[in-house]
Specification:
This protein is mostly helical. It is built from 8 helices and no strands. The protein is elongated, with a radius of gyration of 50 Å.
Amino acid sequence: MTTAQGSWTGGTLTPRDLLRPKEVARAVFHPVWIPESLDPAVDTLKRIRLIGGTIAAVGVYTFVEGGFAFDEVLENMLTASAVLLSITPLTVAVMLYVWRRGGTVRAMRVPLLNSLKLLLAFVGTIVLTVFVWRLAGGAGFLALLLVPAALWLTVVVIRGAVHVSGNFFGTAGVHRCLPPLLATVTTWLMAIPDLATGDLHGLSLTMGVVFILGAPLTVTGIALLEMGRLKQRYGIRLAAHPATLPRVPGPPPAMPPMPPTAPPYVPRQGNPYGNAPHANAPYANAPYAPPHGNPYGPPPQGNPYGNPYAPPAGNPYAPPTGNPYAPPPGNPYGNSSYGPGPHAG
């Protein structure tokens, strides 16, 4: 495939996943450009139908025919590949002719090419698996290398068939009604040759008809249910051009990742106000530790802040010493300009 890995698989396929065929089948046969299904209930019915059909086919090939007819299984795989490779493009071409009045084909060119690539990839994987198994059957010592490769391819084809039965080569990207239509046409064309040739796979007439017609009838019923629900719920009709169909609601937007949870708040240990530990203070490291010493003892002596309005030392009511009204010593008028000078005489 010429499509880049990132646009086909979404960048989810890693080199380590190559050892896991289930992951390879999911990445290759259910690429990211295939739209999500609008009806999960129909998808569940498809899975039940596929599981039931697989069990019935394995039972017929194992018990009815007296042993597992491996060669016939390989031939049926090649026949299914030829039918898919011829009927799928033919059916899509018929629908393009029906849609010609509603719009052009140019708008559907990209999904049509993607579906064709997916069809070629699935058919090519089936042909390669059949070729490797037949080569391993007569390879002698080389079979030790070819059998693991054949088993790996077989798991890829089986898982790919599960994905393809649901999306039918991604044709839902062209029109939502194309997958049920293609599934119905393909299963009927696979059953008609058995009915025409009378090959009942060793079953009686009644059981053979039930086994042959069971698959197309079941697929047709599920397809009609799916197209009916698409028409009733979303207004999608098979005969309408995809450009004229109403827009269907897309998947809900992904929720943004939640920020990492902040660690719970833990208060800082110790006294945030700087009380140092003391032998007589058992709560010295507590956030609200009491002062050092005896908290119930008498207050400390003296005023630790001082008193700017404190009275002077001594008795403030004691009489002053001496005569407070006595004149100062000497003649206070001796230097006066109105009295006799010191040398008058």
